[in-house]
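Run log, item B.
One chain of 280 residues. Sequence copied directly from the ordering sheet:
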Amino acid sequence: MTEKHAPTAWVDTHCHLDATEFDADRDAVRAAARAAGVGHIVIPAVQRSHWHDVIALARRHGDSYALGIHPLYTPAAQESDIAALRDLLAECRGDPQLVAVGEIGLDLFVTGLNVERQAWFYAQQIELAREFDLPVILHVRKSSDQLLKVLRATPVVGGIAHAFNGSAQQAQAFIDLGFKLGFGGAVTYDRALKLRALAATLPLDSLVLETDAPDIPPHWLYTTAEQRAAGLPQGRNSSAELPRIAAEVARLRGMSIEDLQAATTANARAALGGLKAFSC
């Protein structure tokens, strides 16, 4: 049964609520985010075995979902998963809670991955996004130029370049193709000079907010390798951290938190058209 909630302004455009890190207290984590003012989240799937769990989670909490195969999961993926994804997208066509194909993309940072295999799955899923007229949620890690090359050859209706950390020129290239850029916990680190400069100077209508929870913890949750070796656990990121991350973005831009809230919510709706069906 889908929950009904009063409208709240913050939208977390990227949260892996289905991750095993949330197995013990998943519903409580979602409730805490709502109490913090996060009225809506987007849950992107990462592999075939997660698709139905992600759909069920979104329906239970009145949130949105995306379906796809993440590049880090391509070693175990089967080519038949693309046909299965097409069938499920067809089955879910018209569901307002389905907002994108994702999380898809390329990861050229992690060593040992087959780049050609990643590229095949990425290209196939871009074709599905075109077929179903859906935006895409992109995994962009050391791969902006390669992703952009495919998008120029096979345009889609836009989407989000998740956890963007490229150059200003690459940012503009995504924007020119109708994409918004996702900013999350990484922007809270003083040493992230390039990323913080982008968050401060990119056009306001190009930004969306995200957590990538349970990953990419903001600085107040981070523990060093030495601290972890001494037994201090890494802080688990969650959607409840989004307003505090947003406050740092607002500070960097020299604007009010209220104005940032209004702008990023509008941007999320523009990037993922299905969000317009929800009062977020």
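Observations after the first pass:
- The chain is about 40% helix and 15% strand.
- The domain at 10-277 is CATH 3.20.20.140 (TIM Barrel).
Flagged for discussion on Thursday.
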